[in-house]
């Protein structure tokens, strides 16, 4: 077995990773594909925790555009992340990976409350922990929740898995001449106002020296390459 560069990983997924046609809803086939990629990490010996967004179920900006209170919109988004976490946990179980869902908002009938020590023990026992409901507070994104949880569980890297193979100087879908960066400092990423992660999450990682790897979830072996320390996507670090 190859030596892992990062043996404990916080994997941040967008809700779109589970989405069906048009980027909305939960597609069980998509959940199975994501579970298969997580299974590969577990087979390599990596300890994995996952924070997943809710863009496939609820887009807060749509509510805000109609005059909804920000706190209410954010709480709806937190609940939607729990739905995604439960769906992915089911797919993981069927893939042979033992999952545990923990939530920042107490809902004991469907998930454990988030307790840092318990989450760490689950990972040490080979379980994959899905951390739902964000930070439990409005006005914080799931990116920020991922950064916070990565620090709390002593993760060695935060992997932001998207549909794009790294950070570019402009939108690669619109601009064929867009340049991809292999590496950026935290300050460079903040100054560029990169769209893949908000400034609060970036600053939290910078203040705690948490490396961030932005990569394409669907690129073959991208996650495996990341935990081995091989060049993939864009590394944001000191």
Structure characterization notes:
It is a single chain. With 238 residues, the protein is α/β, with parallel strands linked by helices. The chain has one domain (8-237): Carbamate kinase (3-Layer(aba) Sandwich). Helix content is 38%, strand content 19%. The chain is built from eight helices and eleven strands. It has helices spanning 28-43, 60-65, 70-94, 116-124, 142-152, 186-192, 199-207, 222-228; strands spanning 8-13, 47-52, 99-103, 112-113, 128-132, 157-162, 167-168, 180-181, 183-185, 212-216, 234-237. The protein has a nine-stranded mixed β-sheet with strand order 4-3-5-2-1-6-10-11-9, with helices on both faces. It has a two-stranded antiparallel ribbon with strand order 7-8. Helix 1 (28-43) links the parallel strand 1 (8-13) and strand 2. Helix 5 (142-152) runs parallel beside helix 7 (199-207) and helix 6 runs antiparallel to helix 7 (199-207). The mean pLDDT is 94.
Features:
238 residues, alpha/beta, Carbamate kinase, 9-stranded mixed beta sheet, two-stranded antiparallel ribbon
- In the CATH scheme, the class would be Alpha Beta
In N-to-C order, the SSE pattern is EHEHHEEHEHEEEEHHEHE
Question: Could you say which structural class the secondary elements and strand pairing correspond to?
Answer: alpha/beta
Helix amount: 25-40%
Radius of gyration: 17 Å
The averaged pLDDT comes out at 94
Overall outline:
globular
CATH superfamily label: Acetylglutamate kinase-like
Short description:
By secondary structure, this protein is of the alpha/beta class. It has eight helices and eleven strands.
């Amino acid at each position: 077995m190859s030596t892992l560069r990062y043996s404990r990983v916080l994997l941040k997924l967008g809700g779109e990773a589970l989405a069906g046609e048009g980027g909305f809803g939960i597609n069980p086939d998509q959940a199975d594909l994501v579970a298969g990629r997580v299974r590969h990490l577990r087979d390599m010996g990596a300890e994995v925790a996952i924070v997943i967004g809710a863009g496939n179920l609820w887009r807060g900006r749509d509510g805000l555009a109609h005059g909804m209170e920000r706190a209410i919109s954010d709480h709806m988004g937190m609940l939607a992340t729990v739905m995604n976490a439960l769906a992915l946990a089911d797919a993981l179980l069927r893939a042979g990976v033992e999952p545990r869902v923990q939530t920042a908002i107490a809902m004991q009938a469907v998930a454990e409350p988030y307790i840092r020590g318990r989450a760490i023990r689950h990972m040490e026992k080979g379980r994959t922990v899905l951390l739902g409901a964000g930070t439990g507070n409005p006005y914080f994104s799931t990116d920020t929740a991922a950064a916070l949880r990565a620090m709390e569980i002593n993760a060695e890297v935060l992997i932001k898995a998207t549909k794009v193979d790294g950070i570019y100087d402009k939108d690669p879908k619109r601009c064929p001449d867009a340049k991809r960066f292999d590496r950026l400092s935290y300050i460079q990423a903040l100054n560029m106002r990169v769209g893949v992660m908000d400034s609060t999450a970036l600053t939290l990682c910078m203040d705690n020296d948490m490396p961030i790897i932005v990569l394409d979830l669907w690129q073959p072996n991208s996650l495996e390459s990341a935990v081995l320390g091989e060049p993939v996507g864009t590394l944001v670090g000191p």
